[in-house]
Amino acid sequence: EREEKQRAFVIIEIDGLAYEYLRKALRAGYMPYLSRLVMNRKLRLTRWHCGLPSTTPASQAGILYGNNYDIPGFRWYVKETGDSIMCKLPGTVRAIQERLAACRSGLLLGGSSYINMFDGDAWLALFTLSALGRHRLFENVRGLGFLILFGLSPIRLIRVIGLSLWSWLVYVVKRFATWIRVRPRGSHFTFLGPLLEIFNNIIFREVTTFSVMLDIYRGMPAIYAAYTGYDEIAHHFGADSKEALRAVRAVDRQLRQIDRIRQLYHQREYDLYILSDHGMSPSVPFRQVYGQTLQELIDAHTGEEVQVEDAAEGDEGLPEARIRFLIDEIRGLEERRKRPMAAQLLRATRRRLETSQLVETLEAEWDLERRAEIAVRNSGSLSHVYFDVTPRPMDLSEVALLYPALLQELVGHEGIGLVVGRDGQEVVIAARQGT
Length: 435
Description:
alpha/beta
């Protein structure tokens, strides 16, 4: 009885839509229904900071479980095992969810999850990455039942078929015209290119809307549905491109359908939340601008130092001669420094080098045979750099010790906004403007 009196909620996530681009879409008339709700004060528009990393895994983990600890991006590297983590694989996402849910219940307990990364302990998880591949017959049957009901809805089925055919026809006409005009060598014309876009932006979208409406009719206590079309299109065409804004307009039509049935059926009172998991910033691929990846840039400023050290000493550890050599090199860099931040780090490194305790610690912890093994993992405009010389995270002063010129190069590079690292118990954030 208490559960029946409790208000339920519907959360609609527009993946990747930043506050400023939402405002632009509202002003340009791409979201007339949402604009009307805001103007009539049925909804309140506000912004929020998703923090770092601004990626779907970390944001959804925080929303659905109140915990996004140890999710540093969309892709990262585990130094202890050498594993590369990418949050596109169901098994990987499921393992992350099991860790998150070990000590707490999810937000969607007893409810429904559609096209999410994590299921939030939902009773029904359809097109949700962490739930794919589970061998639960009844859960699969529940999802299959929704698809059958959708197939028995003639108007919605005709709509999906019509939109899919139209998208395919537009794609074919555009690509064929380009192919006739340019005829690039070695290329071939294909009719199958838009299939993934049709599934993501039309079929999944319509099935999700139908399922949410059915859940409201049935009185499900918690519903969370993500629309991913805008995010995928914005990555390719730009966050404020016409293609991306048209995807936002399509979501607005889904919102109107969901909100109307929410107001029509009163078996249970529902609160409606419309949110985004993260935003986007305009950017250009690093390789496109500078002719090399960040990994290649780092390799170029660490390889020479590695070769010099290998030629100078063949034994393991950090002998006193090498320590003195590095101290002299760092002093030279300090004198030639053009940026205060780099000088501060180098000065701190030199001071730590001059203590015997650091030398003993590093001799015990570092495997210098692996100092050329550096891994870079990119999540959008956020890159993580891992040095396999030790299994633990390295301090910035230790990085400066092994690669004296690297930090100065990274901080001074015009294509790198911030360099963030640890130094003891502190977090150091450095840019060309200062530390």
